């Protein structure tokens, strides 16, 4: 049984320096899929049903996804970052989604990634919002990105 939960990257209870901020429309939509899959199976699922695995393009975005994890008790999920040679690339390719600064955002855990030659070539987001390089064969939940423009719908 697959459960799919939309992740709103706008929380109506978001605390700001001046107090609680109202939600603003978001132009992206993410879905946490709570069935365990390997990274490549997760990528295939996301590409079949949405657009791709999520690209986390800022600390604000990582923090909001982490808050969602915390509130609902989830521990890990695949994101779209993978090791290719000595580089880390996003599964979703396209400047229409993110710019160069956003594409280079990383939120690695301490001592991660160790290297891309140890079989840990895929990226898992942890409950604290930090990322670990893991074996792509590990099964865990995953986050999909839907390319539909949700702010205009």
TrEMBL record:
InterPro entries: C-type_lectin-like, C-type_lectin-like/link_sf, CTDL_fold. It comes from the Eukaryota. Residues 30-145 form the C-type lectin domain. This is C-type lectin domain-containing protein. It comes from Denticeps clupeoides (denticle herring). The lineage of its organism: Eukaryota, Metazoa, Chordata, Craniata, Vertebrata.
């Amino acid at each position: 049984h697959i459960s799919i939960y939309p992740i709103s990257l706008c929380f109506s209870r978001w605390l700001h320096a001046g107090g609680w901020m109202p939600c603003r429309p978001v132009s992206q939509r993410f879905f946490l899929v709570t069935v365990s899959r390997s990274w490549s199976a997760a990528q295939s699922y996301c590409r079949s049903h949405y657009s791709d695995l999520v690209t986390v393009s800022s600390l604000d975005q990582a923090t909001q996804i982490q808050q969602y994890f915390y509130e609902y008790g989830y521990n890990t999920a695949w994101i779209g970052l993978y090791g290719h040679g000595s580089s880390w690339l996003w599964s979703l390719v396209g400047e229409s989604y993110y710019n160069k600064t956003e594409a280079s955002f990383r939120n690695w855990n301490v001592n991660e990634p160790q290297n891309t030659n140890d079989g840990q070539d895929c990226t898992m987001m942890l409950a604290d919002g930090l990322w670990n390089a893991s074996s792509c064969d590990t099964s865990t939940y995953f986050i999909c990105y839907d390319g539909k423009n949700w702010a205009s719908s």
